[in-house]
Amino acid sequence: MVGTVIFGLVLASSCHSLASLSQRYGRPPTLDVVHSLLTPIWVPQLRQRWRFRAHRSQLPPGPKTIRTGVRKPWLWFQELTKEYGDGDVVYIQMGPTPTIILGSAQAAWDLLEKRGAIYSSRPRFIMGGELLSGGMRGLMAPSSAFWRRWRKALHNGFMQRQSESYRPIQNLESRVLMHDLLTNPKEFRTHLERYAASVIVTVTYGRRVEDARTDAVVRANAESMSRLTSVNNPGKFAIERYPALKYVPSIFAPWKAEVLRQRQKDINMYLGLVNEVKDKMKREVAVDCFTTYLIDKQENHGLDDLELAYAAGSPFGAGVETSAGSLASFLLACVKFGQGFIPKAQAELDKVVGSDRLPTFEDMVSLPYVTAIVSETLRWRPITVLGGTPRASIADDTYRGMFILKGSIVIAPLWSIHLNENDFPDPHRLLPECFLEERQYPGLFGHSAFGWGRRVCPGLHLGHPSVTLNIARILWGFNVSLAKNERGENIEVDMLVNLFAFSDGFNSSPLPFECLITARSSKHVQVIEQEFQDALRHLKNYAADSED
Ligand code: HEM
Ligand SMILES: *[C@@H]1O[C@H](CO)[C@@H](O)[C@H](O)[C@H]1NC(C)=O
């Protein structure tokens, strides 16, 4: 769901951005009583307009016209970054809101990390965030006391030490993934998604997912995400332009009654899932998980019951597609560039791990080359192409002589940042070596895949090890190469890594593609089989049907 929010915003605001002032501020085609409700919100907008005029000459450079109907806005943002000024701060006016696009790691770091006090809020998501979610979804919440409580709960729940307690779950599910890849390699995408969903649901609610296509918790969450996606399209609803419509009573506004009905469904689902865990805690059969942690620390975090239930639901929206998509990008990289890096990685794995067991988390410190492949995969094709949900600034600011108006939307697209030739000279090639060399880059990781500052991904210590362990194990056990067609010819890869072979939306992951995944030797097959059987025994503790 990091995913679903902004795309609509980009599209929709660009649709009415060319409207003239009189249209924008003109009388809406609604009842006069509604009209008078709107008056208060004009005032700050007009004031903003005035301050904007006063600083016009200091604004960052940008295009005069706005492109509409862009399906992959990050490609357009990247063009803007290359075209304007020094390139890494671009100004666009989308609808009434000034928007700043940050196109380099340094600019994103300087503003989102170092000046986090100004740049960590969110724009309003009136339909999705306020009406549908009642302000309970922290990812869309502006900086506020609520957001700080929510953020603290997520941060504490997934900080390094706490996340390490979930490693056994990742280890066991990863053995299932290796077995799935061995026995049914063609369906690799389904296996990656099951792995990611099962880790998240087990970590969150203490019960695993055996089939993501039929699992009740996965389906309920997916429905909730699609309710959010369908309303998070501001162009669809006048309310995003006229926020006071929010206060029209439901009996005069069937659309509002409908959104509130949808909200009730989410509430029932999130509370229901937490209540199941509470019930197991009473019967002393609950396994430790994020929800038991939230319940134990409820007073400490100051969350009420509903806030707690929504907080528990956060990892699903933010953690499944990002983890599964990163692993899909890795397989795509193998198909295109594997000949360059797979043999080196396998030599390292054979030396450090041998062929009698799967690699473990403890091995990672001794696997610098494999670790570099992981970093480079996250750099090469970041799933969160737009750098997460857009920020909003809460104060006027000046950066390198450029004026950034309070209330600006600020987007730091990872697509621009990770493919910026100043930092990565050959950006579309996967070159793990660049993570083994000394190189100037702000921050600790040498990439920005998990974001910045106060909004940095709180699931980093869960998501990163998931991606790392599975990349290491796939390289240990399998050769991954081009699939062949029925005539035995290689299926062309340039099509596969083509920029348009990635999905539209807020996040972007590879569209379905084919590849050949084959075990390296019968010895490797045997180890995968054994460790899988062993995992099944342990995973019984987390079975979904042991619930009653
Ligand atoms: C490889 C996996 C992952 C990647 C690449 C990733 C990436 C990101 C990025 C780029 C952001 C935006 C950060 C910013 O605005 O500066 C983000 C936010 C977030 N991520 Fe992740 N993430 C991953 C896995 C996870 C997991 C497993 C969880 C579950 C605990 C999670 C939970 C969140 C949440 C809740 C936010 C919103 C934070 C806020 O608004 O304060 N992510 N993630
Ligand atoms: C795996 O690929 C390497 C070359 O990268 C090759 O030497 C080896 O024979 C392959 N193994 C199998 C089992 O296909």
TrEMBL record:
Pfam hit, one: p450
Pathways per UniProt: Antibiotic biosynthesis
Biological process terms in GO annotation: antibiotic biosynthetic process
Necessary cofactors: heme
Leader sequence segment: 1-17
PROSITE patterns: CYTOCHROME_P450
MF terms (GO), sorted A to Z: heme binding; iron ion binding; monooxygenase activity; oxidoreductase activity, acting on paired donors, with incorporation or reduction of molecular oxygen
Claim: Hydrolase is one of the keywords in the record: no
InterPro entries to which the protein is assigned, alphabetical: Cyt_P450, Cyt_P450_CS, Cyt_P450_E_grp-I, Cyt_P450_sf, Cytochrome_P450_fung
Residues that bind heme: 457
SUPFAM superfamilies: Cytochrome P450
UniProt keyword terms in alphabetical order: Antibiotic biosynthesis, Heme, Iron, Metal-binding, Monooxygenase, Oxidoreductase, Signal
Stated family: Belongs to the cytochrome P450 family.
Name of protein: Cytochrome P450
